[in-house]
Structure formats: structure tokens, C-alpha cells
Amino acid sequence: MIAYADTSFLASLYGTDANSLQAAHHVETLRPTFAITPFGELEFITAFEALAFRKLLSVDELDESMQAFRADLAMGVLTCKPVPPTAFPRAIVLSKLYTRTLGCRTLDILQVAIGLELGADVFFTFDKDQAKLARRAGLTVRPRR
Fold first, then answer.
1. pTM for this structure?
2. Which CATH superfamily is domain 2-142 in?
3. Which one of 34, 35, 52, 129 has the largest count of C-beta atoms within 10 Å of its C-beta?
4. Residues 103 and 78 sit within 8 Å (Cβ to Cβ)
5. Is the dihedral of CA 80, 46, 19, 87 positive or negative?
6. Which pLDDT belongs to residue 1?
7. Rg of the chain, C-alpha, whole Å
8. Which own/partner pairs from 56-64 qualify as long-range (CB within 8 Å, at least 24 positions apart)?
9. Is 135 exposed, middle or buried (0-12, 13-18, 19+ CB in 10 A)?
10. Cα–Cα distance between 117 and 63 in angstroms, integer?
């Protein structure tokens, strides 16, 4: 199974929040291999650094999350992929199709476009708006809501 996870899912998987147990359950149950691009890695790191900046995450917690992320990269749970060059044209099409009716944000559109262009079987997100877009774009979304 090729899976793509947005930042909301990765943050829950590698951090501690209201969705962390559910994220861990999905990974343990489905055993997906997640495709991660430099864009996804940047969003993930920025999210955790911002939490540390706002004092919502200690430096030790930040380091633990980054170490777990790096370990999963090393073990192949996360597979590095380049951002497909066709992701931006796909994102433009998605924006034209769905932004007017769903109110999509650019980064959400880009995440969905990347998932589509990487051939993801499943798109993992806890973001309800991004889940709507991903479903409309034809992706299977987990967790189901």
C-alpha cells in the first residue's frame, strides 16, 4: 500500500495530541509505507519547531519526535520521494475544480496533488477540510470521519 500522510496525521503520529492513539492504531493495523517528499518533511519540521517556539513542546519532546521520524525514514516506514513535477499543474486543476465550493487552501491542495501524483492508495489526514478535498479528488481517506 502506498500511503501519503499530511502534516496533521504526521504530527499526531510523531507527537502527542488528541489524535495520536488513532494515528498509531492505523499504522499498526494497516502497516502502510508512507511516501514523504521534501515538501512534506519541511511542513512536518516546521510544525514541530513552531510548537517549540510557542512553548507547547519542550526541546526534549521535539528531539524525541525528530528522532522517531528519522528512525522511520531509516527503517523504510517513510520513503523519500521527490515532489513530482506534475504536482503543481495537478494542484492548479484541483484549485479550479474545488476551491470555489470547498474553500481550499493552497498547501492543502498541494498536499492532495502530491498524493495523487505519487499514486497513493490512501491519503491519511485528520484535517476535515483536506479530507473533503482528497475524497473529491478520488483518494481513499483515512481515518474515516
1. 0.93
2. 5'-nuclease (3.40.50.1010)
3. 34
4. no
5. negative
6. 82
7. 15
8. 57/15, 61/15, 61/16
9. middle
10. 31
pLDDT reading at 145 higher than 70 = no
User: What residues pair up with 5 in beta bridges, in sequence order?
Assistant: 124
**Cell numbers placing 13:** 503520529
What is the percent of the chain where pLDDT is above 70? 99
- Cα three-residue angle 32-81-9, rounded to 5 degrees: 45
Helix (H) or strand (E) holding 81: none
CA distance to 108, 130, 132, per residue, from 103 (Å)? 10, 10, 10
In the chain, the largest separation of any two C-alpha atoms, in whole Å, equals: 43
> pLDDT tens digits, residue range 46-105?
999 999 999 999 999 999 999 999 999 999 999 999 999 999 999 999 999 999 999 999
3-state secondary structure of 79: strand
> Residue 134 is which amino acid?
A
Contact indicator for 117, 90 with CB cutoff of 8 Å? yes
